[in-house]
């Protein structure tokens, strides 16, 4: 590896390692069920879109201490979310009427 390639690589790694945390908190996880799209974020929010992602509304705000780590829909059109808290994870399922979350 020559010096120029090393500098390119080290600059890229510096950019990746020092991304602002605010931008990382906006990364999202998505699931689709019952004609709606659900988007979870690392800052603990779940958004819902009834129109295939053209518009989004806040569905649930778990708080920044509970990042949404994963979302999925099962064959029965149920939405499941995996949240984190203090190094642990737990799973929630959205009720059939899409109003409340319950533990699994």
What does this structure look like?
- Mean pLDDT is 81; it is low at 12-26.
- The strands form 2 sheets. This protein has a 4-stranded antiparallel beta sheet, with no helix packed on it.
- The longest helix has 15 residues, at 3-17.
- The protein is globular and about 60 Å long.
- Strand 2 and strand 3 form a beta hairpin.
- It has one domain (25-103): Thrombin, subunit H (Beta Barrel).
- It has 104 residues and is of the alpha+beta class.
- The chain has 2 helices and 8 strands, in the order ααββββββββ.
Short description:
The chain has one domain: Thrombin, subunit H (Beta Barrel), CATH 2.40.10. It is built from 2 helices and 8 strands; from the N terminus they run ααββββββββ. Strands 1-2-3-4 form a 4-stranded antiparallel sheet, with no helix packed on it. A 4-stranded antiparallel sheet has the order 5-6-7-8, with no helix packed on it.
How many structurally independent domains? 1
In CATH terms, what is the fold-level topology? Thrombin, subunit H
In the CATH hierarchy, what is the architecture at level 2? Answer: Beta Barrel
Q: Give the DSSP E fraction (strand runs of 2 or more residues).
A: 35-45%
Counted beta strands: 8
pLDDT < 50 stretches: 12-26
Evaluate the radius of gyration.
18 Å
């Amino acid at each position: 590896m020559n010096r120029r390639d090393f500098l390119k690589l080290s600059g890229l790694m510096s950019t990746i390692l020092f991304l602002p945390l605010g931008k990382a908190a906006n990364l999202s996880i998505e699931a689709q069920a019952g004609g709606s799209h659900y988007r979870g974020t690392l800052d603990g929010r779940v958004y819902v879109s009834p129109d295939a992602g053209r518009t989004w509304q806040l569905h649930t705000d778990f708080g920044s201490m509970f990042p949404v780590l994963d979302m999925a829909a099962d064959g029965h059109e149920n939405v499941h979310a995996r949240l984190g808290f203090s190094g642990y994870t737990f799973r929630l399922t959205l009720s059939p009427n899409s109003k409340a979350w319950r533990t699994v």
